[in-house]
Specification:
Distance between the termini: 19 Å
Structural class: alpha/beta
Largest sheet: 4 strands, mixed
Number of strands: 6
Radius of gyration: 12 Å
Strand order of the largest sheet: 1-2-4-6
Length: 96
């Protein structure tokens, strides 16, 4: 996972898996990612798997950003989008 900040936009790139092993790592990075962000972007282009633990961290980030700006998910592949559909999270997140 990487964080890049530029002009009020924070981009968090998540690769491979976002599950019970890696979600806590992302959760620890959230305060840094949220600090001063007007827009939070999660680049999920290279994400192969997401579990409920990963969804929970994304939801936590969405709730925080609703108070300070906006959040969107980039590059969500078909398999990952299916998980968002099944969990009905497509109405919560903005996808690009």
């Amino acid at each position: 996972m990487t964080i890049e900040k530029k002009n009020g936009t924070t981009t968090v790139t998540v690769t491979d898996r976002l599950d019970t092993t890696t979600a806590p790592e992302l959760d620890k990075l959230l305060p840094e990612a949220l600090d001063g962000a007007k827009e939070l972007v999660f680049d999920l282009t290279d994400l192969a798997c997401i579990s409920s633990a990963g969804l929970r961290v994304l939801l936590k980030a969405q709730k925080a950003m609703s108070a300070q700006g906006s959040m969107k998910l980039l590059g969500v592949g078909e398999g990952i989008m299916e998980i968002f559909d099944v969990t009905r999270f497509t109405g919560i997140f903005t996808f690009e």
